[in-house]
Predict the structure.
Amino acid sequence: MIIELDTERLTNLGLCPDEYVYLLLLSRKEIDPSLKLNVDLELLQTNGWIKIGEDDDVTLRDKFETSTLSDFDQMWHGLLSRFPLKVINNGQVRMLRAKDPDSKANSKAKAKYKKIVGTDKEKHDRIIGCLNRELDFRRKGNGLGYMQMLDTWINNHSWEKYTDTNDTTEPESTTGRITRSL
């Protein structure tokens, strides 16, 4: 994993590089015990970055996400948190996107999404609403296995198919094709 550090930003946040890397890995749920990071958990808790619970469970507070991610990055992470990582179709697993939001595999989709949304939170919320409706329809009708890959979904503006749909609409039938006999 490649992590870029802006030392000026770290100074403004009052974090050392080890603390920032620890918090970033914690936010991605990718803590690696083999990394030797010099982190004072008590100090991070005192400064409001984490909460140490019983059994030494460490929980990241919202302060990290809101102070380190731009508005667009928060929207991008929101989209990826809703968009399926993989689907199963006829017993075969098909990956729809990369797990890491900043991976090279997601970079084209991220650039395209940034071009579409920019910093317009309302447009992002509409797209997320459409994605939620599409996922509901696909789950009800056993069509989740045919979900498009993330970059295709963004490039084709596929969410637009679900803008005017009603949340209570049921799929017509899950029994398959209806044919007539002559």
User: Anything to note?
Assistant: The mean pLDDT is 85. Residues 56 and 117 are 40 Å apart (CA to CA).
